[in-house]
Amino acid sequence: MFRAAGIVTSPEILIFTYFMITDPRTVPLGRVGRITFGALVGVVCVMLMAPQETEFGAKVALLAGLTIMTALRPLLERVVPAPGSPGDNMRDFARSVVSGGSANPSIASITKRGGGVALAAVLVVGGLAFGGRSAQGLLASEPENLIGRLATRIDPATFPSIRVDDAVINWNHEIDVEGARAIVLTLAENLALETQAVVEQDAALLEAINHGDRLEAMQARLADAQRTGQTVIDSYDIDDVHVTLLVPFGRQDGLSLGMIATGIRTTEVRDSSGTVISSNTAPFETMWAMRRATGARWLTIAELPVPDNA
To answer: What's the total number of domains in the chain?
Structure first.
């Protein structure tokens, strides 16, 4: 219940709804048109939101439902009575839909037409449900595809202590300590997949987990490994993670998190046969910037110095 309230009252939804309410062209003018439009908005949004597993996916689905119905408004106005006409009431409209406009319809024609309306409704609802599941797959199935490529699964029991700033929780109430735990797991998986991508010389894997400066840095490391035959890989033993909110890197950028981590980093240099040429282990303190991509998937976008006020 509280999650639904959070979605409905989120800034994105309120802003979109404000423009819908204040723009008279958004909804039909007639009584039947308005009622039908509102009912269809509810059905479309619910069917698109139902398969989603995250608040992000639910918000996208809700906005998609509103957008779809706004685009279909001109078509809806073609099939509902004109505003202010004698037939502009739901009782007469429902009767005309079932009877097909005939003054004395037969039982057979009513049954046939009612069955047709029911079949059309089933097809529409089924199509929306399928579309919602497809969208949910685009938003949420990608992590499992990536994690299936990990040579060794990350054990959550080995997780470090996690602290979350109040600013992060105020920005997104889902990212409390438990919510941050899932993002820390993604960070650990991204770091492991980075090493795997460099060792296997898999550039596509890097593009699936990194973006921006981090992607460029890892692509440069991969290019050096291909050119010199020597591969540099890092492994981390993280003791503590402090989750902070980063100022967006650009006006159109979404939520970015700063994952300030401390622990031990081991850097190895291996030759083309996999033999370790050199190894260095030392304490580290760094901040990985992460940004949500789709659904539960977060990309590593940069490794930054730890701010003085962190």
So the answer is: 2
